[in-house]
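Continuing the batch. This is chain 6 of the set; chains 1 through 5 are on the previous pages. Same settings as before, nothing changed between runs. Recording input and output for traceability.
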Amino acid sequence: MAMTHKKFAATLVEYRTRNNFSQRDAGLALGCSKRTLQNWEQERAMPQGFGLNAILKIIQDGQARAAQPKKPKRVRATRRKKP
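Output for chain 6:
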């Protein structure tokens, strides 16, 4: 079954609300601009071919990651260089 504009838009909105992302945050996570994401959600445009598959894979991987507990990030201290 082919992905329609309507189904793709619903998938994006569901992804954003589930992850509590703004359009800007979702755009950064998906590798596109806020404006592009707005066009996709308004059903004005939709990626095709490999681009569509890549976006759907990112969304799918995000669902798997959301189910796993997040590990705290390690912060490394840096030393100041002597003048």
